[in-house]
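subagent[fold] <- orchestrator: predict structure for attached chain, return tokens only, no commentary.
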Amino acid sequence: MLLKGYLTVRQVAKQLGLTEYRIRQLIREKQIRATKIGQWRIKLQDLKEFVKERTNK
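subagent[fold] -> orchestrator:
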């Protein structure tokens, strides 16, 4: 089942070039907002916000 607007940990890891383990660490550290829907899911908007916060200004 696909949830519109949500990405899996695997999808986020692939997009950011990080490991799934590191994405789960960031979720635990509350650096990336996520929702537990069977497994951790990240809203596309929350991912964009995470990247924006870490971009040089």
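orchestrator: received. Logging for downstream: The helical segments are 9-16, 20-28, 44-53. The chain is about 45% helix and 20% strand.
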